[in-house]
Amino acid sequence: MKRLYEKRERRLRRRRRSKRSPYQISDRYRLVVYRSLRHIYGQIVNDTKGKTLIASSTLDMNLQEDLKKAGSKIEKSIIVGKAIADKAKKKRIKKVVFDRNGYLYHGRIKALADGARSGGLEF
Fold first, then answer.
1. CATH at 19
2. Cβ contact 36:115 at 8 Å
3. 25 falls in which pLDDT band (50, 70, 90)?
4. Looking at beta carbons, which pairs linking 107-110 to residues 24 or more positions away fall under 8 Å?
């Protein structure tokens, strides 16, 4: 149990460190990623107004048909990333800052970022 607690504390420490950075004041929006054991979530946030502009996840009903065809969670993450990029295009958002929320840039987090990049987002 102590090991799980330490692992969670390390992630939260990385998360707090990334939140202190000056990108929250910048003119770009922030693409925030959260992952659970089964799902992955992404949203584009306006930090100056404190509002979520775009959100997508593996629970999104519009993506269920594509997600059923995907075999792994990494493939599902790519689909979610592309969906976020498509929604961002419709709202004329091109440049964002990627906030990995304390997670290591590896696996599903990297797959979501690559999917968003292939969909047209720049970060």
1. 3.30.420.100
2. no
3. low
4. 107/74, 108/35, 108/40, 108/73, 108/74, 108/77, 109/33, 109/35, 109/77
Taking alpha carbons only, the member of 12, 38, 29 closest to residue 84 is 29
36: containing domain: 2-118
Q: Tally the domains of the chain.
A: 1
Mean pLDDT of 72-91: 97
| Residue 110 is assigned to a structural domain of this protein | yes
In a domain, 123, yes or no: no
3-state secondary structure of 38: coil
The verdict on pTM exceeding 0.90 is no
